[in-house]
């Protein structure tokens, strides 16, 4: 080979090597530390935005479920308002027709009593739908159950349902009381709807498991849940009410219950048998 050919070959090899090195320097795997940090920062910013949007959507979903619960309670509220207004109208009309001062005074007393009950009912429903900031505090279990039952508006005995509580007055847990009221209301509402055309029974029991946890169970003797549905009932938009006449549900109630309980470092489980009933068991920290 001539000296000129050897020189050209050496030059070409050197040029090729320089090109390879230049290409390698532009490879994503060979970013300078400053470039890598900038990329990582942008990715973190995008992740933070997505996380914020996810939390916002979760809050909206919970508010939607609150409003769905409000719709359920409002139906009962309208029915009870009619029942409460009937004696008011009856006594007022009778007092006016008779022109009896004593009957007029009685009509006013009944009106005052009945409107007071209606105002209390309305306040409970507004509180149930309120989207208030979380406030963790010590919650009395029996008191929280009573509040949730009051939100049902219509007394369970009017639907031939016996309500039993087996809860020590001193039992408490650490939670946001409004959120737990929403959980208890949903479980009670579901239990009432599961009891159809029979003598019903809802039993709520609570006990301390150990120094750190308390257990609360909601048991009904309703229609029960098929075994192949048990694994799915906590999923979004899954509802066991879709196939029941005159019943409806968007399938967010139990999902929301599970999320709230898990955020409070607790758990919720379900066991059921078709035709015999269902039991939901919640475990929550006492905060002691």
Architecture overview:
The protein is of the alpha+beta class and 288 residues long. It has 2 domains: 32-131; 136-288, Histidine kinase-like ATPase, C-terminal domain (Heat Shock Protein 90). The protein contains 6 helices and 7 strands, in the order H-H-H-E-H-E-E-H-E-E-H-E-E. It has helices spanning 3-25, 33-98, 101-129, 141-151, 177-194, 253-263, and strands at 137-140, 161-166, 172-175, 200-208, 213-220, 267-273, 277-285. The strands form 2 sheets. The protein has a 5-stranded mixed sheet with strand order 2-4-5-7-6, with helices on one face. A two-stranded antiparallel ribbon has the order 1-3. A hairpin with a 3-residue loop joins strand 6 (267-273) and strand 7. It is globular and about 95 Å long. Residues 1-7, 13-29 and 244-251 have low confidence and may be disordered.
- What is the CATH topology assignment of the largest domain? Heat Shock Protein 90
Overall geometric form: globular
Low-confidence stretches: 1-7, 13-29, 244-251
Q: Tell me the number of helical segments per DSSP (H or I, 4 or more residues long).
A: 6
* CATH superfamily label of the largest domain: Histidine kinase-like ATPase, C-terminal domain
H/E element string? HHHEHEEHEEHEE
Classify the secondary structure makeup into a structural class.
alpha+beta
Domains (count): 2
- Tell me the Rg in angstroms: 32 Å
Task: Note the main sheet.
Answer: 5 strands, mixed
Distance between the termini: 91 Å
- The CATH level-2 architecture of the largest domain is identified as 2-Layer Sandwich
CATH class of the largest domain: Alpha Beta
Main sheet: strand order: 2-4-5-7-6
| Helicity range | 40-55%
Q: Taking all residues together, what is the mean pLDDT? A: 76
In total, how many beta strands? 7
Question: Which percent band covers the strand fraction?
Answer: 15-25%
């Amino acid at each position: 080979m001539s000296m000129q050919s050897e020189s050209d070959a050496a030059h070409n090899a050197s040029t090729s090597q320089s090109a390879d090195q230049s290409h390698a320097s532009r490879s994503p795997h060979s970013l300078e530390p400053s470039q890598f940090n900038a990329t990582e920062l942008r990715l973190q910013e995008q992740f933070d935005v997505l996380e914020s949007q996810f939390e916002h959507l979760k809050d909206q979903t919970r508010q939607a479920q609150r409003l769905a619960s409000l719709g359920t309670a409002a139906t009962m509220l309208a029915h009870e308002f009619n029942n409460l207004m009937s004696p008011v109208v009856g006594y007022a009309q009778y007092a006016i027709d008779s022109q009896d001062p004593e009957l007029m005074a009685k009509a006013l007393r009944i009106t005052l009593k009945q409107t007071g009950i209606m105002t209390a009912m309305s306040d409970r429903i507004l509180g149930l739908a309120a989207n208030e900031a979380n406030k963790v505090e010590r919650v009395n279990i029996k008191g929280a159950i009573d509040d949730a039952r009051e939100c049902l508006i219509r007394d369970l005995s009017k639907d031939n349902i016996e309500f039993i509580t087996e809860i020590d007055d001193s039992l408490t847990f650490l939670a946001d009381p409004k959120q737990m009221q929403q959980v208890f209301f949903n479980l009670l509402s579901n239990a009432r709807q599961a009891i159809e055309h029979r003598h019903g029974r809802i039993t709520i029991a609570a006990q301390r498991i150990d120094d750190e946890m308390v257990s609360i169970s909601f048991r009904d003797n309703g229609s029960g849940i098929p075994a192949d549905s048990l694994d799915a009932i906590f999923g979004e938009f899954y509802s066991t009410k879709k196939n029941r006449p005159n019943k409806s549900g968007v399938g967010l109630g139990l999902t929301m219950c599970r999320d709230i309980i898990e955020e409070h470092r607790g758990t919720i489980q379900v066991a059921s048998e078709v035709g015999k009933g269902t039991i939901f068991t919640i475990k929550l920290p006492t905060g002691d």
